[in-house]
Write a structure and sequence with these properties.
- The protein is of the alpha+beta class.
- Helices cover about 35% and strands about 20% of the residues.
- The strands form two sheets. Strands 7-6-1-3-2-8 form a six-stranded mixed sheet.
- It has a single domain, classed as 2-Layer Sandwich (Peptide Methionine Sulfoxide Reductase, Chain A).
- It comes from Lactiplantibacillus fabifermentans T30PCM01.
- This is Peptide methionine sulfoxide reductase MsrA.
- Keywords: Oxidoreductase.
- Has an important function as a repair enzyme for proteins that have been inactivated by oxidation. Catalyzes the reversible oxidation-reduction of methionine sulfoxide in proteins to methionine.
Length: about 180
């Protein structure tokens, strides 16, 4: 099996794992940090806004089962693409929405998907999620991996911070974008 990777930042990485983890063709979803200037940052450093990193997930997938375009669609449905400075209750540059692309093919797919979303007029505001080149990705500490399974109570509190309501309001009927 030849695998590929995708990296997405959409607010708290705890909340970005489950939607991908449960998809066929996904080999792994790792919470971590990317886009900053410090090697091997810690959660505490990233949360303190001292490293320039964004919380993200790195997804290893089998493109014969799930396409990168499908992953981008799943990504949109987890985020508020009109909020450049965080997601839901998580505020700051370390929670900004970014699609990190690892080459021209991923860039073309991500940009076309973003343009389609903007043209759909699903949102009254512009789509501000950025599309940036992949940078070094550093896995987060063990306690942050598969957080939704290992800490269901805290995870549920995070989801109650507005993400679930937003998803229900905007993404329940995905055909609006087609």
């Amino acid at each position: 099996m030849a695998t590929e990777t995708a990296i997405f930042a959409g607010g708290c990485f705890w909340c970005m794992v489950q939607p991908f983890d449960e998809q066929p063709g996904i080999e792994s979803v790792v919470s971590g940090y990317t886009g900053g200037h410090t090697e091997n940052p810690t959660y505490k450093q990233v949360k303190a806004h001292t490293t320039g990193h964004t919380e993200a997930v790195k997804i290893t997938f089998d493109p014969a089962i799930v396409s990168y375009a499908d992953l981008v669609e799943i990504y949109w449905h987890q985020t508020d693409p009109t909020d450049a400075m965080g997601q839901f209750q998580d505020r700051g540059d370390n929670y900004r929405p970014v699609i990190f692309v690892n080459g021209p093919q991923q860039r073309q797919i991500a940009e076309a998907s973003k343009a389609k979303l903007q043209a759909s007029e699903l949102f009254d505001k512009p789509i501000v999620t950025t599309i940036e080149d992949v940078q070094p990705f550093y896995p987060a500490e063990a306690e942050h991996q598969r957080f939704y399974k290992n800490n269901p109570v805290v995870f549920a509190e995070q989801e109650a911070g507005g993400r679930a309501d937003f998803i229900e309001q905007y993404w329940q009927d995905a055909s609006k974008v087609d």
